[in-house]
Design brief:
The chain has 335 residues and is an alpha+beta fold. The protein is built from 11 helices and 9 strands. Helix content is 45%, strand content 15%. The strands form 3 sheets. A 5-stranded mixed sheet has the order 1-2-3-4-5, with helices on both faces. The longest helix has 31 residues.
Length: 335
């Protein structure tokens, strides 16, 4: 509820993710070509997960609801799943994540559990006996899947209602932490987050070595909250300076650093081997195909220097290399 007065902010990655969700709902959506491979992979994983729930789904498809907002008994809470399928007393809830950071597994993902309870309560005529939930993250490997029984969903429903009552109470208990503060727009005005900040601000940097282990443990818990607030302050400053470059005295926006990365490791592996600039043993040595490690292996295999290895990789990989722009930074103007 503390978030309500604050406007939403959006990053380029978030806008890309929104476009990818649009394509998953309607594949005629005009999607930027470089975002399409992840969607194709997500589509393939989605079909695999559907097949786990209903092996004959292609001939007998389930009832499908895409991006449909569901409410719990009026307006207690709502949620919108990317995909909901229902058939023969079973339901499937899928959430797509197109970011590169791995989220909680389906078995312990609260967002999916709350969505499953919404599906369970919104379709009583379907007599749902179990609900399978799945997270599909094409950049992070295979889908994560978990199944809840009707009894488990009933218990979860009671727990969710308890949480909602706590939120709606006159004096809700605020708890700051890295998970709950990560996406919170009210972090700058939250008393719980302020307590974490103040705890760190009171520490004398020259006396850190005198802290007890217990005191240090408590302060370490506060560090992620303070770090997240600093990041949000910088993002807000960038937004304002983009719109009005003179708005914050003494500061300006500078472009973030551009760093290259490999878009598709499998394609890159085939191209490198075809170009004969590395052998199978070298590929294994650079198993993650990070550019730094790969450059070292190519240097050794071809007995060349760093710049020559960089040129070899660029020529071999071509469009498989991408160079996304780094995040804009707010910097003090140098006089």
């Amino acid at each position: 509820r503390m978030n309500l007065p604050f406007k939403d902010t959006s990053s380029k990655a978030a806008r890309d993710g929104t476009d990818q969700h649009e394509w998953m709902e309607d594949d005629t959506f005009d999607l930027r070509p470089d975002l399409l491979p992840a969607c194709k992979e997500a589509e393939q994983q989605r079909n695999q997960v559907i097949g786990l729930v209903w092996s004959d789904w292609e001939n007998h498809p389930p009832e499908v609801h895409l991006e449909e907002r569901l409410w719990y008994r009026g307006d207690k809470y709502s949620g919108k799943a990317d995909y909901v399928g229902i058939r023969d007393g079973r339901a499937l809830v899928i959430d797509y994540k197109f970011g590169r950071g791995k989220v909680d597994d389906a078995s312990c993902n609260d967002q999916l559990l709350w969505l499953a309870v919404l599906v369970f309560t919104n379709f009583p005529k379907s007599r749902i006996r179990q609900i399978t939930v799945a997270i599909i993250q094409p950049h992070c490997g295979p889908p994560s899947v978990h199944t809840y029984t009707a009894e488990q969903l009933q218990r979860a429903r009671r727990r969710i209602l308890y949480v909602i009552r706590q939120i709606d109470s006159e004096n809700p208990r605020l708890v700051a932490g890295p998970e709950q503060c990560k996406w919170c727009k009210a972090i700058a005005v939250c008393p719980a987050a302020a307590a974490k900040r103040n705890a760190i601000a009171r520490i004398d940097e020259h006396k850190v070595h005198t802290l007890t282990n217990a005191h240090l443990s408590g302060l370490l818990d506060a560090v992620p909250v303070v770090r997240q607030l600093c990041e949000k302050l910088e993002v807000e400053a960038v937004l304002r300076l983009r719109e009005h470059p003179e708005s914050i005295n003494g500061y300006e926006v500078k472009k973030g650093n551009t760093s290259r990365r490999i878009k598709d490791s499998a394609v890159a592996r085939d191209k490198l081997l075809a170009a004969k600039v590395i052998d199978a043993a070298g590929i294994e040595a650079a198993s993650s195909l990070g550019l730094g490690k790969l450059k070292g292996v190519v240097r050794e295999y071809n007995e060349v220097g760093a710049s020559a290895a960089d040129k070899i990789i660029k020529e071999a990989l071509g469009e498989t290399l991408e160079a996304p722009e780094g995040r804009d930074k707010v910097c003090r103007i140098e006089s």
